[in-house]
């Protein structure tokens, strides 16, 4: 059998997939945790120091830490840095990271389908008490951001308050089913520079429309908000 260019051997060759930068850094972080025999509760070095040790930029390191936070490996606390929650297994951590990146577009699609409708319904059906809960969530997020945090708790409370105000038990059940996946995208988005304040402004526009009982306006504001928070670094690099 003649082996020629374009023949059987060439047909079997495939481009070798290059690991993405954040995957390499996740591997390095897992190795660092293992080499230093870190246990849950131990604090990782400050980002500036850790980035220097690994020879990467702080921005790239921060993205990798967020990826591990999404997996529940570390907890990134304002003022405390990253604290180990559980010891990672390198191969599983990278596999979970790739799966997370692959499912992000579908999670975003689901959020658009569900939350745009929920916002419109909340504008039609909300009670005064439910409007107060929405405003309270806004205040919580604003306080978190003012303290230098990302606003994850207030963000979560805001979207939950809208779900309650929509008075749709089936849509609420569907939201509950994907709540864990939504939390992943929430952490991913709010960890980006300037994103917490931009997200808070989007929430205010949604709340104003709901307060005015403007169903169409609330839906548009939520759609704009979901599109904005869906611009995450993991998808930009993955693309």
From TrEMBL:
<dbReference type="Pfam" id="PF00392">
    <property type="entry name" value="GntR"/>
</dbReference>
<dbReference type="InterPro" id="IPR011711">
    <property type="entry name" value="GntR_C"/>
</dbReference>
<feature type="domain" description="HTH gntR-type">
    <location>
        <begin position="19"/>
        <end position="87"/>
    </location>
</feature>
<dbReference type="GO" id="GO:0003700">
    <property type="term" value="F:DNA-binding transcription factor activity"/>
</dbReference>
<dbReference type="Pfam" id="PF07729">
    <property type="entry name" value="FCD"/>
</dbReference>
<dbReference type="InterPro" id="IPR036388">
    <property type="entry name" value="WH-like_DNA-bd_sf"/>
</dbReference>
<keyword id="KW-0804">Transcription</keyword>
<protein>
    <submittedName>
        <fullName>Transcriptional regulator, GntR family</fullName>
    </submittedName>
</protein>
<dbReference type="InterPro" id="IPR000524">
    <property type="entry name" value="Tscrpt_reg_HTH_GntR"/>
</dbReference>
<dbReference type="InterPro" id="IPR008920">
    <property type="entry name" value="TF_FadR/GntR_C"/>
</dbReference>
<keyword id="KW-0805">Transcription regulation</keyword>
<keyword id="KW-0238">DNA-binding</keyword>
<dbReference type="GO" id="GO:0003677">
    <property type="term" value="F:DNA binding"/>
</dbReference>
<dbReference type="InterPro" id="IPR036390">
    <property type="entry name" value="WH_DNA-bd_sf"/>
</dbReference>
């Amino acid at each position: 059998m003649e082996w020629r260019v374009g023949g059987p051997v060439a047909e079997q060759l495939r481009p070798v997939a290059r690991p993405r930068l954040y995957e390499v850094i996740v591997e390095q972080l897992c190795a660092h945790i293992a080499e230093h025999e870190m246990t849950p509760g131990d604090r990782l070095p400050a980002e500036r120091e850790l980035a220097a040790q690994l020879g990467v930029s702080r921005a790239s390191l921060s993205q990798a830490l967020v990826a591990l936070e999404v997996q529940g490996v570390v907890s990134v606390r304002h003022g405390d840095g990253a604290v180990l929650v559980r010891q990672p297994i390198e191969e599983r951590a990278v596999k979970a990271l790739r799966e997370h990146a692959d499912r992000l577009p579908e999670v975003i699609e689901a959020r658009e389908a569900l939350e745009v409708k929920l916002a419109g319904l909340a504008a039609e059906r909300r009670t005064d008490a439910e409007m107060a809960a929405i405003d309270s969530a806004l205040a919580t997020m604003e306080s978190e951001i003012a303290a230098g945090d990302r606003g994850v708790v207030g963000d979560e409370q805001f979207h939950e308050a809208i779900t309650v105000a929509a008075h749709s038990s089936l849509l609420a059940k569907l939201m509950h089913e994907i709540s864990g996946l939504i939390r992943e995208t929430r952490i991913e988005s709010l960890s980006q520079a300037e994103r917490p304040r931009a997200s808070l402004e989007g929430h205010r526009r949604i709340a104003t429309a709901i307060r005015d009982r403007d169903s169409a306006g609330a839906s548009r504001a939520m759609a704009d908000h979901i599109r904005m928070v869906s611009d995450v670094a993991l998808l930009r690099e993955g693309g």
